[in-house]
Each structure stands twice: as structure tokens, then as C-alpha cells.
Design goal:
OB fold (Dihydrolipoamide Acetyltransferase, E2P), five-stranded antiparallel sheet, 5 helices, nucleic acid binding, elongated, CvfB_S1_3rd, 290 residues, S1-like domain-containing RNA-binding protein, single chain, five-stranded mixed barrel
Length: 290
């Protein structure tokens, strides 16, 4: 029997050393360092260990149970990012594992950040190293359950597991597979980022379309606050109003002209701003008293 890198193996404790135990089979043995022992063990015990390569690329063993193996997917947390290399994830052992750059989106702006979570499996390379690979669509489908029409317009939360230019794919907490079209988000979420939205369509195959945009009333209040804060930074005046072009509004506020007009209308109705000759101004006390 040959011990397989990235797997949980049943081995025998062969002998004790100054720094740990040699464990394995009659054909092969590896070191189980004292730091990697869980509980009490003795020579000739049969134990389960995870086989991996340490930071010196030596094959070694641990009694700690990893979150993923070469046979099992799991969610793992990003612990560091190296732009020209990839991201490292914590799988529950002493060594962090690399998700290589070629597994990640081509656009660095949507790479995961520390704390984001990825659904991965391990792979052993030809030079006896372990890397983590992202789940493919068919792997995510094995996790999925079908959404029903009763979920329409309900709030959902989940993580982005695939990022494309046209939109983001998410797995919700309910294990629904969802798609967020680029038009249904204000900014592109990162791979592995947790997002919250609402279901805007339940499709025949049980998957869902999700919007990350706030509902109209909530959105109007958020947009109004954003416009007001922008005006505060300009001393209470801005060269934008009802007649401003949609492209200029999109570039400055990242919102549609319709959303901008609704938010501006709310500020005017609340008596906070007024418009004059294409500009919008704060309503001062003397103006309000006229």
C-alpha cells in the first residue's frame, strides 16, 4: 500500500522518536510530529491521519481532520492573497494551501480577500505538493436544491462561487443556485464574497435570478443619502439636477437617471434641497423661512 497525498489514511504507529512517531505501513512510513498528535497514542495503535507535504516539501502526517481532501469538497477560508501567485486558504491543518492564479478570475479586482470562503477540493501535483482547486458548475449542482415559486421576492444570502463579466453565480444558504446579472448589482462582488439580495425570478430548472439592488423605497433612501453626502463634501451645492444626462449621473453616482431623480425628489420633498439653473443646493434656514 502507498500512502496517498491529500487523503485520510489508516496507519499503524510503528515507533516513537524524539520529535514524534513514525507511522505508516510495512511498505512506507512518515513522521507524525508531536504537534500533530491528537489525544494519546501508543506503538502498534491503528490511527487515522491526513497525509500532506510540509513547508520543506516533506511528506508528513497529522491527526487533525482537514476541511477538504482530494476526495471531498468543502468551504475553506482565504487567509492571504499574492497577486501573481494566487490565494492561500486554511484547510484546518498547520500548512495553508494555495489556490493557484489560473483557478481565479482574470480580473484581479474580483479576487477573494482575506475572510472570503471558497468551495474547493485538493489536488496532488506531480512534484508532491497539494493545491486547492475551485469547484466546477457540476460540483455545485450536486449541492443544490430546487427553489419553488413561493420563494419569489424573498430575501436570500449566499456566497459567490463563480465570477464572469456578465454576472455572478451564487450558492444561497438554502442551497439554491442563483445568478446575479451585471445589471442587478451596483458593483461586482468578489469570488467567495458573501452577498445578500432578493429573488427576482424562479426558473423551471429550480435555479433563481437574484438582484443585489435594494427595493425601490430602500434604494431611494440610500441614494438620497449618497447624494446628500456628496453635496456636503461640496459645501451644499452640486452641478447636477433633473436635466443632467444619464451618463454623467452614472459616472458620478453609479445609479440610473431614474433612481437619481427619485432620490432628488425625496430630498426636495423633505425640504433639504432645491434646484436652480441646473444646479442643486442645500436649503438654508433663510431660504426655508421665505
Amino acid at each position: 500500500m502507498t500512502l496517498q497525498l491529500g487523503t485520510i489514511e489508516q496507519v499503524r504507529v510503528l515507533r516513537q522518536t524524539d520529535i514524534g512517531y513514525m507511522v505508516g505501513t510495512e511498505e512506507e512510513e512518515v513522521l507524525l510530529h508531536n504537534n500533530e498528535v491528537a489525544g494519546e497514542i501508543e506503538v502498534d495503535d491503528e490511527i487515522d491521519v491526513f497525509i500532506y507535504s510540509d513547508n520543506q516539501n516533506r511528506i508528513t502526517a497529522t491527526m487533525k481532520t482537514p476541511a477538504i481532501t482530494t476526495e471531498d469538497f468543502g468551504w475553506v477560508s482565504v487567509v492571504s492573497v499574492m497577486k501573481n501567485l494566487g490565494v492561500f486558504v486554511n484547510i484546518g491543518i498547520a500548512k495553508d494551501i494555495l489556490v493557484p492564479e489560473d483557478e481565479l478570475p482574470g480580473f484581479y479586482g474580483v479576487w477573494p480577500e482575506e475572510g472570503d470562503e471558497l468551495y474547493c477540493i485538493l489536488k496532488a501535483t506531480r512534484n508532491d505538493r497539494l493545491i486547492a482547486k475551485l469547484a466546477r458548475q457540476e460540483d455545485m449542482e450536486e449541492l443544490a436544491v430546487d427553489a419553488t415559486e413561493s420563494m419569489f421576492n424573498k430575501n436570500v444570502a449566499g456566497r459567490v462561487y463563480r465570477s464572469l463579466r456578465v454576472g455572478s453565480f451564487i450558492l444561497t444558504d438554502e442551497h439554491f443556485l442563483g445568478f446575479v446579472h451585471e445589471s442587478e448589482r451596483r458593483e461586482e462582488p468578489r469570488l467567495g464574497q458573501r452577498v445578500e439580495g432578493r429573488i427576482i425570478a424562479v426558473k423551471e430548472d429550480g435555479t433563481i435570478n437574484v438582484s443585489l439592488l435594494p427595493r425601490k423605497q430602500e434604494g431611494m433612501e440610500e441614494d438620497a443619502e449618497r447624494i446628500y453626502e456628496y453635496m456636503e463634501g461640496r459645501g451644499g451645492a452640486m452641478p447636477f439636477g433633473d436635466k443632467t444626462g444619464a451618463e454623467d449621473i452614472k459616472e458620478r453616482f453609479n445609479m440610473s437617471k431614474g433612481a437619481f431623480k427619485r432620490a432628488l425628489g425625496k430630498l426636495m420633498k423633505d425640504g433639504k434641497v432645491y434646484q436652480e439653473e441646473g444646479w442643486t443646493y442645500f436649503v438654508r434656514e433663510e431660504k426655508a423661512s421665505e
